[in-house]
Description:
The protein is of the alpha/beta class and 240 residues long. The chain is 42% helix and 20% strand.
Amino acid sequence: MTSAIGMPRLLIVDDDESIRTTLAEALHHEGFEVACASDGRQAIQQFDARQAQGTGGFDLVLLDLMLPGIGGLDVCRHLRRADSRTPILMVSARDTETDRVLGLELGADDYLIKPFGLRELVARCRALLRRSQQGGEKFPVGAVLHHAELSLYPDEFRVTRDGQTVSLSPKEYRLLEFFMQNPGRVWNRNQLIDQVWGTDYVVDTKTVDVHIRWLREKLEANPSAPQHLLTVRGFGYRFG
């Protein structure tokens, strides 16, 4: 998804006018079509309005964590409910591990700590766009994946169990989607990181185990004796 003239559409959300101006000029020079929002409410309004247009939504969102009014985490939640696939690059001066993990778990695809260099920012933006574009359109319109009592609706980014909607984080959804596309095959942790998190991420293999546990708690009738997300001891995981 790019604009009519082939430029990726980027939304910059930051309450600091000087930062917005500097980033907008730099990223426009690098070939992005740039829109800006100074707070969370403007960001949500612009994102929703662009989504509703027939020409498509934004290709990437650069989202500051510390915003007046509606904070960056709440904006991130809204964007993920509206569109599960648009990459979100969260930026913040807050550099604790807790902040980074929370941002990523709420749906951000990457987390960049201020201050940062423009070259690094551009490189991360391009990496996120590459991963997004490589994913492509995986399902025909209206397709649904079924397995036993589980159903996955790609057009709606929704999963149900026995007809009841299950609330999943973006990474949980993507992990389940990948498994349901590839039933019966055993995947090791590094393969799952490459397929779900992307090769540009530095992710500990324990992250995969944690997400598997979370999925089991939400999807399995008995998480301690799973029927769908199976451990293949010494190799990895299999969906079956």
